Amino acid sequence: MATYHPLEGAAYMAAFGLGTLPLMIGLTTLGPLLTPALRARFRAAVPYVVGVMGVVLILRGLDLGIPYLSPVLPETVQAEVEVCH
Fold first, then answer.
1. What is the DSSP string of 67-83?
2. How far apart are CA 15 and CA 28, in angstroms?
3. CA 49 to CA 57: how far, in whole Å?
4. Any idea what DSSP says for residue 5?
5. pTM of the full predicted structure?
6. How far is Cα 21 from Cα 37, in angstroms, rounded to an integer?
7. pLDDT below 70 — which residues of the chain?
8. By the 8 A CB rule, do 12 and 3 touch?
9. Which of 8, 55, 69, 70 has a Cα-to-Cα distance from 61 of 20 to 30 A?
10. Nearest Cα to Cα of residue 57 among 2, 66, 75, 77
């Protein structure tokens, strides 16, 4: 939807899928090799990582002008709206 064109959106989704595929395959094949203690440490860290990412995403959305955190947004695009009365 963000690309405003179905084929560009599909290409973006395909590129995202191909980009995440190596990590998912790696986790699937190497995951069973991890020791139970290491798995427990990862599980214990997950709530903290999710919390930090949540705060970062909220701060990005607020656009407070924080360097390296707030995105530089382009000027808003004015869509041509046709009004029929």
1. TTTS--PPPPPPPP---
2. 20
3. 12
4. S
5. 0.56
6. 26
7. 1-2, 73-81, 85
8. yes
9. 8
10. 66
